Amino acid sequence: MIDAWNLTKKFDEVTAVEGLTFHIDEGEVFGFLGPNGAGKTTTVRMLCCLISKTGGEARIADYEVGNTADSLKIRKIIGLVPDNVGLYDKLSVYENLDFYGKLYECTEKLRQENIEHFLKMLGLWEKKDVAAGTLSKGMKQKLAIARALIHEPKVLFMDEPTANLDPEASKTVRDFILELKKENRTILLNTHNLDEAQRICDRIGILKTRLLTVGTPQQLKESLGGVKTEIQLVQVNDAIVSAVKKVTTHKVEISDNKLIIDVGNIDTTIPTIIEAIVSAGGRIQSVTEFTPTLEEVYLKTVK
Amino acid sequence: MLRSVILFPLIVSIGLPLVVHFGGRQHGGISPSVLPRVLDAFSFFFIIGAAYLPTAIASYSLVGEKVEKSLEPLLATPITDSELLLGKSIAAFLPPIVAIYISAAVFMALINQLTHQTLGYSYFPNWSIGIILLLVAPLSAILSVQASVIISARASDVRAAQLLGGLIALPFLAIYVASEIGSISLNANNLFIISAVILLVDVILFFISTKTFQREEILTKWT
After folding, report:
1. 3-class secondary structure, A207
2. Nearest CA to CA, how far is B121 from chain A (Å)?
3. How many domains does chain A have?
4. Which residues contact B119 (CB under 8 A, 6 or more apart)?
5. Looking at the complex, does the CB of residue B67 fall below 8 Å from at least one CB of chain A?
6. How far is B79 from B63, CA to CA, in rounded Å?
7. How confident is the model at residue B223 (pLDDT cuts 50, 70, 90)?
8. A134-188: per-residue pLDDT in tens?
């Protein structure tokens, strides 16, 4: 549904996005993770035909990004939830959506049906006649999402949809995105929130001007070595480390009085390691199996 | 904002007849030979109003969206640049021009009431006011709107846009002053010439506004 090959954007001397190549399937929720200034918003703006690309190519469905004739067609099939919601404060909730529905050339019947459908899904139907400027931040964000969906787009771009929202509002938005996923909508999501990316996204791309890595959350975690075992000792010494290295070829890291071993199968290898530690005089406090977090993957990748 | 756009010409349309009625009272009122020139000059205020009033709405049109952060979702819709500019222009054009017409009707009725005895006939309507209201005022409003929209697309804040937009009324004020000092007569012929010049400027501004409207520059430089 969305393809990019070597997509690049430069602003004068500054390269905001460089050599971006990726593919997003129809119905997939794809997340871009990256620090501030990584190029996430710039990428979304290029794909939405809001700004031109400096180099490379991109396509959304059958349309070419950057082609003047295709730009209008692309904007008809996409919806954008920008990081600044940009509602018309003096118009009511209903009027905001009706206005945008008209811009997307929706029929009156479709507008009425979709406005009611999305406002009820998002819990805003009771507030349909309330001025948008009086809504809370979370409600404005939900209204912005409804606005992006009013014309039933094939592709939805969401730029940090849960930024600055309280936990309850964030959960509502995340749950709503998961509902959209069931409707087989293609969603490209920019986020700083690692937990959100893990919960919602089928695949995640870590971006810092360039696309550093792409994979499912599980693949990204396993890229740091998969499951590890942490053995907390009272004290670690050279004799213990030496004894452990004699019985295993897996990588052993030492941190404070902990041994962190790159071993996935706790049943077959760890008992041997434990025996070696005890034989070398080590006193074990705890043995824990863990998987690297997405945060560790992210921090290691963007460093 | 809309209220002041509508109220201001109404106040002028009542104020000017009162000036005519009470002006020169100490000296027996304005003489019948001078009165038509005064009334023609006052009629020109509707052109100045038509040139100035739309700037209040038009100058906010794009820079206001930038300030409110509502421009990005708007530009992401399948609206063309021409449609966007036309929509903004119509929204800025209609309220002031309707207010001008209502005010002109009030003005003409009051003037006829107050000057009939002096002149011996109803001064309005006449060719001059007809050309002013049907040609010069709408064309001036269009000029004002287009210039203000161009400024609004480039300004970084609302106040700057409104200040610069207000300068559009200056040429019209200059024509008014010239008519008062006798350099130009606001007869029907001259009003036609003024209309033609404004029409030409309108056409030029239209092409400038559509050719120079840059979505990317507006989004990336000013948001």
Report:
1. strand
2. 49
3. 2
4. B32, B35, B36
5. no
6. 18
7. very low
8. 999 889 999 999 999 999 999 999 999 888 788 888 888 888 888 888 888 999 9
Tell me if B76 and A78 make a contact (CB, 8 A cut-off): yes
Instruction: Quote the CA–CA distance of B176 and A205 in Å, as a whole number.
Output: 65
How many domains does one find in chain B? 1
Low-confidence ranges of chain A (pLDDT < 50): none
Residue type, A211: L
Nearest-neighbour CA in chain A from B94: distance (Å) = 19
Residues A290 and A237 occupy one common structural domain: yes
Same domain (yes/no): A163, A263: no
- In sign, the C-alpha dihedral spanning B118, B122, B124, B126 is negative
Q: In this structure, are residues A31 and A47 in contact, taking their beta carbons and an 8 Å threshold?
A: no
**Of A43, A77, A44, the residue nearest A63 (C-alpha):** A77
Interface confidence (ipTM) of the complex: 0.81
Which residue segment(s) compose the domain that B205 sits in? 2-222
Decide if A92 contacts A132 (C-beta within 8 A).
yes
CATH code, domain carrying A256? 3.30.70.100
Contact A21, A8 (CB under 8 A): no
